[in-house]
Amino acid sequence: MTDGLGEAAWAVAIPNVPAWAGLGFYQQFVVLDGGANKLGATFSNAGRATMGIK
Predict the structure, then answer these.
(1) What is the Cα–Cα distance from 44 to 40, expressed in whole angstroms?
(2) Is the pLDDT score of 53 beyond 80?
(3) CA distance 25 to 47
């Protein structure tokens, strides 16, 4: 669900696994929007993150 500005946020719990330090991952969202195009969906820009240890 989005707010009035069309923004959404989500949280993911990532376990504290030292072997995952430096591991990169990508994320992207799809929004079902029947009026947007023939596919009926729009996609966000992709994001990249790297896991670290505190």
Answers:
(1) 14
(2) no
(3) 8
